[in-house]
Amino acid sequence: MEKKPFYHLFPGDLALTCGTWSCNFTCPWCQNWEISKCPPQPDLGFGYTTPEEFVRMAQEEGCQGVSLSFNEPTLLLEWAVDLFPLAKRAGLHTTFVTNGYMGEEALEVLVAAGLDGANVDWKGGPAAVQKFCGADFEVVVKNSRFLKRHGVHVEVTTLIIPGVNEDEGTLRFLAERIREELGSTTPWHVTRYFPAYQFRAPPTPISLLEKAKEIGEATGLRFVYVGNVPGHPGQNTYCPGCKALLIERDGLSLVASHISANVCPRCRDGLPIRFHIEK
Ligand code: SF4
What we know:
With 279 residues, the protein is of the alpha/beta class. The protein has a single domain (15-230), classed as TIM Barrel, CATH 3.20.20. Helix content is 31%, strand content 18%. β6, α8 (206-218) and β7 form a beta-alpha-beta unit. The protein is globular and about 50 Å long. The protein starts with 14 loop residues before the first strand and ends in a 22-residue tail after the last strand. Bound molecules: iron/sulfur cluster. Residues 23, 25, 27, 30, 32, 36, 71-72, 99 line the site of iron/sulfur cluster.
């Protein structure tokens, strides 16, 4: 779950994850461009896996959940809608890592199929999203809000890219919209970009990620995380009330958890972290 990243949903759990090819966005920095920027390639030997087989594989691997990620999972909508009820019946949780760009009917069927959580990419301000991704930022916001209102756990990720979305005004704008639309306890992951696909700008300076975290927190977000920087303390969860260290992470893994329920053991402040799937 930490790799997705989901930090407030089933911490430390394993989710068997799949993706396919292609995407409905045009991001020129795509970190998964080897699969998102090409059509399906059946000749590579990856056969079709049925939802039933996938659930069985997840159980055999000792996973607690299933997830769709890597390229845009909306391209696998019908498969996801078949998979999720089977997964839920098997006691597994279900998640999507998505650009949040789909119609309302797609959201409705995902919610009805039992989607537990979505990490939605908010890639930048409206002009950058239009220019680089070929998309309407407000649709992503509207869809994130729809998921939240329908009981889906939502976290937001922004890959911080120099020259695209790193200026103070954009970061403040994004943080304010997350707070207004999804609430101040929504986790915001500000993650480090590395050159990929058509983008050759150098990797995001770590100081810029720290600045983004500061701006997010100053705007009122209670959980802003620095991502793609192994060893950085900004990956950890601290109680926003008493600052106690609650969950330690490194890289893509949970290292230690000092809580097992959604309350701070030191100051008893409530924490918006979901630990277990309801039976
Ligand atoms: S939405 Fe994600 S997978 Fe699609 S092009 Fe953009 S970064 Fe790549």
